[in-house]
From TrEMBL:
Coiled-coil regions listed: 38-65
Top-level division of the source organism's lineage: Bacteria
Organism: Mariniflexile fucanivorans
The protein, known as: Beta-galactosidase
The UniProt record lists the keyword Repressor: no
Sorted UniProt keywords: Coiled coil
Length: 800
């Protein structure tokens, strides 16, 4: 039997138990749902907006944060579209074979991936602005590109009296009007352009073969695509030569014989020339003086005419044979080359043609013939005929529009890879056009294609060398020309992409390329419509002639808010410090590598070996350059100090004589071996040898790269900067790129970039031994003379 006391105790216990249950139910009832990623991002957006209001009240520039906000809001919208359209997104992932087997998983993960990256850029933006508000950093206000009034100057674009580096995306979303601020703005860039035409008829203001009708009149509806471009923003136009009308093909059966990947007709065909001559003149007249041409007319997209057997371009119908027009022109070229002496040709080729009219050749040509006279003659002619084609283009344009700026989107691999059967003489084409044009690229990580070597990852954070050697060569040929990269493949390409790409890589590669000469760039590529859906060309069944486009969307910056934002942020900084960047890059190139197109044609590994020597000298604190016969003859020889001749067995008499003339006038040449310069273009032994003349000739014997490097650096020791940069990454190779220039006020500008996988210890001092103070120009903070430079870090310093 329970007592009264125990009953009371039981009642109290039940009372307290009841209170606990009520409290528990109350807690459960008011417990909030987990915060979604979008909600977290929206809260951070609100936080950043509040900080921006505070900054504005203190007259602090918030241009950078405005871009963070814009990309954050856009990609939250994009993420919602991707979440509602997973089947469409999976399909787009499936077009890229690297992602095809996991396309459904990628589509499932993409929306939250984008939201997480939005949160990251917001956190970074909030942190940066808090530092500015607290006085921990002081940033220079952003110097924006003036999209309406930027002009092409002598060797740079100029905006509001300062050097300017315009930026945008090539092949921007089709179907959107050029006045749409969701596509053309400071964040994505606002360069108007007639972009890539990937259909058999005009689709994007590209100037193509279909403008001219069979009756000789122009298609006025297509012409309106040009004349209707608003004359407000700067831009460029491209001649897109991929297609050819059916009426032309019916009139000229050979029109497609000898076509190339992106030029759908024979450039030697008189009907094609007549067609294009009329189109170029008409469009040149209609667009004369328009702002959309301020960045020039582009004569071709990645032109090449590879004409060797078993090349990858053969399956795309490139140079599967040659037309009678090409062959006849070749015969005339040979007759001139051999001074009408068919016996000399027969002796060279080991043939028995009775006259030049009977000469024949098999194209594609067998690579086993490399180094033989027939190989040289064909490949040299192929280059000359291509140069002649582009000269025809430019002559037609300048006949009606003499002030028109021109360039060609040169395909980088055709320069830095070994094959020379492609017909592209980079020097001649760069001399021809008024601007430097190309689409230099880099790989931010190992290639996604297993057949492509990625051995560079052992030394470097990204593959920088192809972009660098191309620009150093082009800038050596055209030192006073504007440099336009009209399709910069820094963010993704057919060879590389990474959903988790590093923002440090983006900053480093855009900075380095601009430092090396790039004045404007249009990135590959922006394909989002403002509602988040992919642009018109990426909807429905994709069946492009060029398989690269279909898979280009997957893993691109269209899915990467952190990457898209960083592109704009680094371009803001480059434009803000444009005067400093120009000072750093307009330095002499005291050390030059001799480049011979003759040896490049005849030697199977010429560019591979040249690239190795170039790489060994790249990190020594001096900008590198090249010389050729033409550079020696046309440019002031005093702007360089030493020329290195390496792995250059074959040169023409004209090339040899140019080097001898340089020595006679007091030049300095390092010759790696007696084998170099020993043969003419046909492999015939040269009796002459270089002599020192009034200059200095250093002849080595089969020297390796390390010995050549040591001797070359000793010769230019007097040109080394007064700021000493010691770098130690713990390896037996360097990865820090440095450029120094003395300013009028006695201070020094120093730019450092680390392209290595690891941090590098840096120690700075002056040759004079004087004490120094160092300021980080980006943050205005002081810097010690000893510090660590992180992998892919970029520093712009002022030294007193």
């Amino acid at each position: 039997m329970k007592t009264k006391k125990s009953n009371q105790k039981s009642l109290v216990s039940k009372f307290f138990l009841g209170l606990l249950l009520i409290a528990a139910f109350s807690f459960i009832g008011c417990k909030k749902e987990p915060v979604t990623l979008e909600e977290e991002a929206l809260r951070k957006i609100s936080n950043l907006e509040s900080l921006m209001e505070e900054a504005r009240s203190k007259s602090i520039d918030v241009t950078r944060e405005e871009t963070v906000l814009w990309f954050s809001k856009e990609f939250l919208k994009f993420a919602n579209w991707d979440e509602s359209n997973k089947d469409a997104v999976a399909k787009l992932f499936g077009y890229e074979r690297y992602y095809a087997d996991k396309k459904d998983q990628m589509a499932e993960e993409l929306p939250d991936f984008e939201r997480k990256k939005v949160i990251q850029i917001l956190d970074k933006g909030i942190e940066a602005l808090n530092k500015e508000l607290s006085g921990e950093t002081t940033r220079r206000p952003v110097n924006k590109v003036d999209w309406q009034n930027t002009k092409a100057g002598d060797n740079m674009f100029v905006s509001n009296g300062k050097p300017s580096f315009p930026y945008d995306y090539f092949s921007k979303t089709v179907g959107q009007p050029l006045t749409n601020k969701s596509v053309y703005n400071d964040h994505l860039g606002a360069i108007y352009h007639g972009g890539e035409n990937l259909y058999p008829v005009d689709h994007d203001r590209a100037i193509n073969s279909f403008l001219l009708k069979e009756d000789g009149t122009f298609d006025e509806e297509l012409i309106k695509e040009l004349t209707g471009i608003p004359d407000t923003n700067i831009g460029f136009l491209i001649y897109w030569s991929m297609g050819i009308p059916e009426w032309v093909e019916a009139k000229e059966p050979e029109i497609r014989k000898g076509r190339s990947l992106f030029t759908g007709f024979d450039i030697d065909n008189p009907v094609a020339r007549d067609l294009w001559g009329k189109i170029i003149r008409r469009t040149g007249e209609l667009t004369k003086g328009k702002k959309v041409t301020e960045l020039g007319y582009i004569f071709a997209n990645e032109p090449h005419w590879f004409s060797e057997k078993d090349h990858w371009t053969y399956k795309y119908k490139e140079m599967n044979g040659i037309s009678s027009y090409t062959l006849n022109n070749f015969k005339s070229w040979l007759k001139n080359k051999y001074n009408g002496n068919i016996k000399t040709l027969n002796s060279n080729w080991n043939t028995s043609f009775t006259s030049f009219n009977n000469v024949n050749i098999e194209i594609p040509i067998d690579t086993a013939l490399q180094g033989k006279p027939i190989w040289f003659d064909w490949n040299r002619y192929n280059m000359d005929r291509v140069t002649n084609w582009f000269k025809f283009n430019q002559d037609e344009l300048h006949a009606v529009n003499p002030e028109a700026d021109t360039h060609i989107k040169l395909f980088p691999r055709t320069f830095y890879e070994d094959s020379r059967s492609h017909g592209m003489d980079f020097e001649a084409l760069t001399e021809l056009t008024t601007m430097i044009g190309h689409d230099a690229k880099a790989l931010g990580g190992p290639s996604i294609r297993p057949q492509i070597k990625s051995d560079w990852v052992e030394q470097y954070a990204y593959k920088w060398d192809g972009m660098a050697i191309l620009q150093d060569f082009l800038e050596s040929v055209g030192p006073n020309k504007i440099n336009v990269n009209s399709e910069s493949h820094f963010l993704s390409s057919g060879m590389w992409r990474d959903m988790h790409a590093r923002t440090s890589y983006v900053r480093n590669v855009y900075w380095l390329s601009t430092l090396m000469g790039m004045d404007a760039n249009m990135g590959w590529f922006w394909a989002r419509d403002p509602d988040g859906s992919p642009e018109d060309r990426l909807e429905g069944e994709l069946n492009f002639f060029d398989p690269g486009l279909g898979g280009a969307y997957a893993g691109s910056n269209n899915m990467q808010p952190h990457i898209a934002n960083e592109v704009t942020q680094v371009m803001y900084d480059l434009n803000t410090f444009s005067e400093e960047i120009v000072k750093l890059r307009e330095q002499p190139r005291p050390l030059r590598l001799f480049y011979s197109e003759t040896s490049a044609i005849n030697t199977s590994n010429y560019m591979t070996k040249t690239g190795k020597l170039y790489e060994s000298l790249f990190f020594e604190g001096l900008p590198l350059g090249f010389v050729t016969k033409n550079i020696i003859e046309k440019q002031d020889n005093s702007i360089w100090n030493t020329v290195v001749v390496y792995n250059t067995k074959y040169v023409t008499n004209a090339e040899f004589n140019a080097l001898q003339s340089y020595l006679n006038n007091g030049g300095k040449v390092i010759l790696d071996s007696s084998k170099s310069l020993s043969m003419n273009e046909y492999g015939q032994k040269r009796n002459k040898k270089l002599t020192s003349g009034k200059g200095k000739l250093i002849v080595l014997e089969d020297a390796d790269i390390s010995k050549i490097k040591k001797i070359a650096l000793a010769e230019v020791a007097g040109q080394m900067p007064e700021v000493i940069i010691e770098s130690d990454n713990g390896k037996d190779f360097k990865t820090t790129i440095s450029r120094v220039v003395k300013q009028e006020n006695g201070t020094y500008l120093l730019n450092l970039l680390n392209v290595g996988n690891d941090a590098t210890k840096i120690k700075l001092s002056l040759k004079s031994g004087a004490p120094l103070t160092i300021k980080n120009l980006i943050t205005s903070n002081s810097v010690d003379s000893d510090f660590n430079l992180a992998s892919e870090e970029v520093l712009l310093l002022e030294i007193k």
